[in-house]
Amino acid sequence: MLRSSWTPGPAADVAGPVLIAVTAFRADAARDLPGIFRSGLALRAAWPRLAGAVGMWLWTAPLKRRCGSVSIWESRQALDRFVAWPEHVAIVRRYRGRGRLTSYTWTACACEPAAIWAEARPLLSRAEA
């Protein structure tokens, strides 16, 4: 598995509880994976401007046709705004029906990126099955 570097968001200095969202997409066809991953990179480029975004990583397992993200949010409302963001919606629609998406969310008492990645990593393995 390959993982991007940590990308902080505008809420990177949040104190207190955070919401973690993990996504894992398994593409039906290998030819779709580069476009899916490029779309993730485009969203990542916008990350520093997304209200309520604390930070994120992209990940990929190209030989398994899998990719996704581990993102940290200030609140459920911030995540919901991102999910409804037109750029995100367009990507979801473009790849709907071309694979299987698994997602998980939970809250943590504080933003501790290393601990959050350690907790998310087994979920990515589980989603790969």
As a whole number of angstroms, the C-alpha radius of gyration is 14 Å
Instruction: Characterize the largest beta sheet: strand count, sense, and whether it forms a barrel.
Output: 6 strands, antiparallel
Count of helical stretches: 4
Strand content: 25-35%
SSE string, helices as H and strands as E = EEEHEEHHEH
- Structural class call reads alpha+beta
Query: Total domains, how many?
Result: 1
Class, according to the CATH hierarchy?
Alpha Beta
The chain-level mean pLDDT equals 93
Reported CATH architecture: 2-Layer Sandwich
**What is the helical fraction, as a range of percent?**
25-40%
Q: Give the overall shape, derived from the CA principal axes.
A: globular
Descriptive labels:
4 helices; DUF3291 domain-containing protein; 129 residues; globular; alpha+beta; 6-stranded antiparallel sheet; Dimeric_a/b-barrel
Explain what the structure shows.
The protein is α+β, with helices and mostly antiparallel strands and about 130 residues long. The chain has one domain (about 1-129): Alpha-Beta Plaits. The chain is about 40% helix and about 30% strand. It has helices spanning about 35-45, 75-85, 85-95, 115-129, and strands at about 1-5, 5-10, 20-25, 55-60, 65-75, 100-110. Strands 1, 2, 3, 4, 5 and 6 form a six-stranded antiparallel β-sheet that branches. The protein is globular, with a radius of gyration of 14 Å. It comes from Nonomuraea indica. This is DUF3291 domain-containing protein.
